[in-house]
Design brief:
This protein has 207 residues and is mainly α. The protein has one domain. It has helices spanning 3-10, 13-16, 31-66, 70-97, 106-142, 146-206.
């Protein structure tokens, strides 16, 4: 299947993953359980971001026709954020659906999970910077000429709103990834214990 066709094929998950259940409170009996939940969390994260992007784009287009002043610039900036976030979601979808998360052994798969948790922590810090930058733009608007106040403050409020949404979104999905890893810990400890037992038996055989 061509790359662009496969991406459109996976685009259907924007519809199905919003309401899908993750079953994070059920025990993990094998690596496939961990993988399925891991990919499910990623897909749901992408789906929520994708729909938030579409909402901002559509509402922005409609609002730009009817609104003016602060609200006009607020919706304009929201639409820009929507376009950027939608592009990001379409890029990230490759990582969530293709073979990257099916390669490697047990430990490598858990390492991918931990890597994503670290990325989300970085994103949370970035989200906070958006909020503070939005506050700066809003405050800067107070010192602008009267004909520029609406632009600066409208943009500032938009950046604050987007930062708050992304902060909540990334925190929530970081918690889900963490919960998935904690559920997998007993299984991981079992695998490590069995691996150590095999090594010890091999050493005895050599002796």
């Amino acid at each position: 299947m061509p790359h662009h066709a496969s991406k459109m094929y996976h685009f259907r998950y924007f519809l199905t993953e919003i309401s899908s259940k993750l079953h994070l409170h059920e025990p993990i009996d094998e690596i496939k359980d961990f993988d399925n939940r891991h990919r499910g969390i990623l897909r749901k994260h992408i789906a929520v971001l994708g729909w938030w992007s579409v909402f901002n784009i559509v509402l922005g287009i409609v609002a730009l026709i009817w609104l003016s002043g602060h609200w006009y610039y607020f919706m304009m900036m929201n639409m820009v954020w929507g376009i950027i976030n939608f592009m990001v979601s379409m890029i990230v979808i490759d990582h969530a659906f293709f073979r990257k998360f099916r390669k490697g052994d047990c430990l490598e798969r858990f390492e991918v999970q931990r890597h994503i948790e670290k990325m989300l922590i970085f994103n949370i810090g970035l989200d906070l910077s958006y909020i503070f930058f939005g506050l700066f733009l809003h405050a800067k608007g107070c010192a602008m000429p009267a004909d520029r106040v609406a632009l600066w403050q409208g943009f500032g409020i938009s950046v604050i709103a987007q930062g708050i949404f992304l902060f909540c979104l990334d925190n929530y999905f970081h918690y889900l990834h963490l919960l998935n890893f904690r559920k997998a810990q007993p299984y991981l400890e079992k695998v490590l214990w069995e691996g150590e037992a095999v090594v010890k038996e091999s050493e005895k055989g050599i002796d």
